[in-house]
């Protein structure tokens, strides 16, 4: 019997009325005879509200307690959705992440799923019960509650789909699919019919919040075709899969961006591989993710090193560096806030050398200063001032003709 995993995000389950609508969809799918695992997020802005409350207590609350706190959001949704389905005459049962056997590594706030003990849910699926699992959470070897990082319910859904060998994994959300860029920012953004795992992975890592990056990573590694579609309409969604046709004349599939970027610069660092690696070791030891890196060699002895980090992690990053100032041997530490990262993504870029130049031209024409650059085979990222973000997105969307439909393959 086929198994389908359906995931519903925060907006889709924001109140009881919407839970009834979600139940309609689940029931429709159930009637096809499929076994069903349904993964849900916290209702509406619940997680933001919990984060805000913790922030009233401390600007650096205990990560362990944050996980205990944030995991409650999803627990509310699973119980209510299960009640709705039971009330409507269907067998349904809710599971927290730990009850569902979702085992993670021992890292708070951004744990990776290591394994799923399928024996806990399997008997319920066999009986035909609709299994509702709390997204975004798991448990460590020693029973500690963990969460998977903001937006992590997508990852719970894909990990469950992989573990149970699901035929389909559908991500229901508040947009009708994956667009060329966030449709809230660019009004003429276009919904993509398909996008490859690699492009979606880049888009997600580069800030396209429509899918959690690890969800795409698990989907790619386990060959799970993902569909992103609307909870509110029957419109066809976007399919994320291995190979997707790319018109020769088009190199860019979409734009992604991140706000709240800060740049940290260490001046007067010894010019040695060892000195640079010590800096990154110190930061990595605290599980702080750094992003774009630029090193400027000033002379034979000295170098300067800049990297970007999310605004929320700036204080922690500065603390690590300051407390190790002597061991790391730098002379000055400066930082700049109010930055954004804008990236173009597309598999066609690998074979189209002029794309980066086209991007810099377009930005320069609007007087948008590029402060840092990072590239890979299928993306170019630039760091710019955040107050220029909107203009940059609109300009690049036009430059790369992203509103135009792709032509059909013959
Ligand atoms: P959910 O709660 O369902 O997980 P999210 O808020 O996490 O929903 O993701 C959906 C949102 O992602 C959209 O409302 C949209 O603003 C944003 N988004 C960012 N980039 C894109 C993109 N390229 N295509 C579609 N949506 C995007
Ligand atoms: N509720 C969590 C968040 O808001 C996880 C998710 O929605 O995917 O980040
Ligand atoms: Mg999400």
In words, what does this structure look like?
There is one protein chain. This protein is an alpha/beta fold. The chain has two domains: 3-246, Acetylglutamate kinase-like (Carbamate kinase, 3-Layer(aba) Sandwich); 255-399, VC0802-like (2-Layer Sandwich), CATH 3.30.2130. Helices cover 33% and strands 27% of the residues. It contains twelve helices and 18 strands. The chain has helices spanning 16-30, 46-57, 63-87, 122-126, 153-163, 197-205, 213-221, 273-284, 314-323, 325-328, 355-365, 389-399, and strands spanning 3-8, 35-40, 92-95, 102-104, 113-116, 130-134, 137-139, 145-147, 168-173, 194-196, 226-230, 238-241, 254-270, 290-297, 302-310, 332-345, 372-376, 379-385. The strands form four sheets. An eight-stranded mixed beta sheet has the order 3-6-2-1-9-11-12-10, sandwiched between helices. Strands 14-15-13-16-18-17 form a six-stranded antiparallel beta sheet. Helix 1 (16-30) packs across helix 3 (63-87), helix 6 runs antiparallel to helix 7 (213-221) and helix 11 (355-365) packs across helix 12.
């Amino acid at each position: 019997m086929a198994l389908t995993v359906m995931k519903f995000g925060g907006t889709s389950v924001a109140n009881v009325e919407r839970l009834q609508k979600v139940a309609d969809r689940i029931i429709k799918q159930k009637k096809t005879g499929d076994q069903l695992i349904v993964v849900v997020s916290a209702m509406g802005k619940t997680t933001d509200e919990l984060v805000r409350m913790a922030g009233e207590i401390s600007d650096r609350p205990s990560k362990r307690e944050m996980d205990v706190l944030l995991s409650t959001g999803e627990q509310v949704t699973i119980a209510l959705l299960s009640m709705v389905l039971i009330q409507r005459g269907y067998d349904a049962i809710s599971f927290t992440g730990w009850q569902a056997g979702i085992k993670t590594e021992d890292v708070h706030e951004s744990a990776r799923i290591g394994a799923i003990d399928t024996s806990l849910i399997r008997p319920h699926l066999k009986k035909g019960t609709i299994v509702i699992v709390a997204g975004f959470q798991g448990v460590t070897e020693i029973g500690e509650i963990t969460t998977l990082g903001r937006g992590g319910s997508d990852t719970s859904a894909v990990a469950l789909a992989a573990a149970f060998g699901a035929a389909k994994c559908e991500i229901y959300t508040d947009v009708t699919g994956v667009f060329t860029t966030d449709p809230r920012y660019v009004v003429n953004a276009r919904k993509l019919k398909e996008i490859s795992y690699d492009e979606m992975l880049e888009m997600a890592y580069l800030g396209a919040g429509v899918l959690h990056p690890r969800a795409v990573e698990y989907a790619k590694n386990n060959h799970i075709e993902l569909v992103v579609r609307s909870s509110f309409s029957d419109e066809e969604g976007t399919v994320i899969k291995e190979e997707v046709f790319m018109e020769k004349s088009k190199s860019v599939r979409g734009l992604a961006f991140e706000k709240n970027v800060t740049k940290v610069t260490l001046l007067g660092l010894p010019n040695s591989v060892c000195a640079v690696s010590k800096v990154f070791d110190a930061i990595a030891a605290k599980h702080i993710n750094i992003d774009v890196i630029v090193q400027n060699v000033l002379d034979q002895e000295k170098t300067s090193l800049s990297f970007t980090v999310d605004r929320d992690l700036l204080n922690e990053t500065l603390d690590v560096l300051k407390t190790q100032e002597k061991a790391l041997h730098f002379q000055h530490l400066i930082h700049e806030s109010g930055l954004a990262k804008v990236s173009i993504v597309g598999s066609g870029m690998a074979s189209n050398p002029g794309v980066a130049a086209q991007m810099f031209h377009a930005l320069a024409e609007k007087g948008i200063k590029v402060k840092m650059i990072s590239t890979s085979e299928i993306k170019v990222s630039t760091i710019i001032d955040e107050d220029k973000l909107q203009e940059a997105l609109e300009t690049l969307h036009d430059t790369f003709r992203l509103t135009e439909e792709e032509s059909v393959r013959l």
